[in-house]
Amino acid sequence: MIIVGLTGGIGAGKSTVSAMLAQRGAAIVDADQIARDLQGPGTPVVLAMAERFGSGILDEHQGLIRSAVAEIVFADPAALKDLNTIVHPAMQAEIAAQINVHSATDRIVVLDFPLLTENPRSDLDATLVVDVDPEIAISRVVAHRGMDEADARARVSRQATREDRLAIATHVIDNSGDTAALEERVAEVWAELVTLAASRS
After folding, report:
1. How far is residue 13's CA from residue 6's CA, in Å, rounded to a whole number?
2. What is the pLDDT of residue 185?
3. pTM
4. Closest C-alpha among 21, 18, 32 to residue 114
5. CATH 3.30.70.20 is the classification of domain 2-26+107-200
């Protein structure tokens, strides 16, 4: 088994690349999906969040109102630290569990993790960064997700910078072109990962 990190800013096309890698045989560990699962109605993480931030963050079905949490933590560094203290250990434990499923195999395990630059890991055999000019990313998010441009720009400003992401990359996947160009680059990177995995087995 080798563990490969995959990251990219909003609108870069990371999810598309993740799907392309899955089609080629990668085992995907999706950090965003893990976060959603851990924050489902009635889960220990959500109950701990409600205890810390109040029942106002829950809807009538005991589900999490993400916007209510965001409103609290973005304005209060101490609250954000408390949120991370609740969420991160559970996230890391579940990520580790999903990776460990493949530990005795020769699989290429891809950890799809938007916050990889902000939360670096020492156990990665390679790090793939999906890269695109931030202006292209913003225009794509506005066009394809219907997001307000000001909101998109605010989200980009809160993320790691393009330069910081590129600094951790062992492989850069340029997604400024069309789907065919992206497929071609992913195929190149996949071939290199297969070679790397073979050298470690």
Report:
1. 11
2. 98
3. 0.89
4. 32
5. no
